[in-house]
Amino acid sequence: QSALTQPRSVSGSPGQSVTISCTGTSSDVGAYNYVSWYQQHPGKAPKLMIYDVSKRPSGVPDRFSGSKSGNTASLTISGLQADDEADYYCCSYAGSYTFGFGGGSKLTVL
Amino acid sequence: QVQLQESGPGLVKPSETLSLTCTVAGGSISSYYWSWIRQPPGKGLEWIGYIYYTGTTNSNPSLKSRVTISVDTSKNQFSLKLSSVTAADTAVYFCARHGPHVGWYNWFDPWGRGTLVTVSS
């Protein structure tokens, strides 16, 4: 069982927006502004897309944005493109120098 | 640009110890935090543990009793040992750096390409 809960699948048409949720507890997501998001294409290593809830690393398009409310963090992808089709994982600092990941969400671009 | 490469046996027998090494190229292992993360086939990611170049470590409570992480700064490498493995430990094992600069960061970037370890007799 994963530490954080994500929907197993989400979908959207090209150009649309989708939001992936990541629900934790008051001991992880709710306690710290240290949620990160990773994109993983099949057979590849995960790629950092968002860190510290809403910050984007250099090179990540501004179509990707992150937010948090209470114990739930969210990743929103606007202007969906075919290459956005991938698995997405959230991760939260959980205190005591430990981390938890979500179970992953498969994004399908219709 | 720093690159990470995992290496080690691809097949380990049940009850034995899984041993992997992560080699850091294009940058120093010193002053950074490094983690091991795994992904069973078709499943999600699981954080295993981290090490600082000084040797300070911590690991996932669910694996703590079986995990040993060590560092060799002279070789720019850090290693993972997971004891008493079972089929449930079959996974792709990734190594990753914490953040872009020296010190503690709560995200992982970059990652190695990962290496598949199968536990089977």
How would you describe this protein?
The complex is a heterodimer of chains A (110) and B (121). Chain A has 110 residues and is mainly β. Helices cover 0% and strands 44% of the residues of chain A. Chain A has strands at 9-12, 18-23, 35-40, 47-50, 64-69, 72-77, 86-93, 99-101, 105-109. Chain B is mainly β and 121 residues long. Chain B contains no helices and eleven strands. In chain B, strand 5 (46-52) and strand 6 form a beta hairpin. Chain B is globular. The N and C termini of chain B lie far apart (39 Å). The chains are: A mainly beta (110), B mainly beta (121). The A-B interface holds A 2, 32, 34, 36, 38, 44-48, 51-52, 57, 89, 91, 93, 96-104 and B 35, 37, 43-47, 50, 58, 60-61, 94, 105-109, 111-114.
Write the layout of secondary structure elements.
The complex is a heterodimer of chains A (110) and B (121).
Chain A: E1 9-12, E2 18-23, E3 35-40, E4 47-50, E5 64-69, E6 72-77, E7 86-93, E8 99-101, E9 105-109
Parallel strand pairs in A: 1-9
Antiparallel strand pairs in A: 2-6, 3-4, 3-7, 5-6, 7-8, 7-9
Chain B: E1 3-7, E2 11-12, E3 18-25, E4 33-39, E5 46-52, E6 57-59, E7 67-72, E8 77-82, E9 91-98, E10 108-111, E11 115-119
Parallel strand pairs in B: 2-11
Antiparallel strand pairs in B: 1-3, 3-8, 4-5, 4-9, 5-6, 7-8, 9-10, 9-11
How many helices of chain B? The count is 0
- Computed structural class of chain A: mainly beta
**Residues in helices of chain B, as a percent range:** under 10%
Number of helical runs of chain A? 0
Overall pLDDT level of chain B? 96
- Main sheet of chain A, how many strands, which sense, barrel? 6 strands, mixed
| Terminus-to-terminus distance of chain A | 29 Å
Element order of chain B: H for helix, E for strand: EEEEEEEEEEE
Tell me the Rg of chain A in angstroms: 13 Å
Biggest β-sheet of chain B: count, sense, barrel? 7 strands, mixed
The stretches of 5 or more residues of chain B where confidence is low (pLDDT under 50) are none
**Which range best describes the helical content of chain A: under 10%, 10-25%, 25-40%, 40-55%, 55-70% or over 70%?**
under 10%
Number of E strands of chain A: 9
The CA-CA distance between the termini of chain B, in Å, is 39 Å
- In terms of quaternary structure, what is this? heterodimer
| Rounded average pLDDT of chain A | 96
- What percent strand of chain B? over 45%
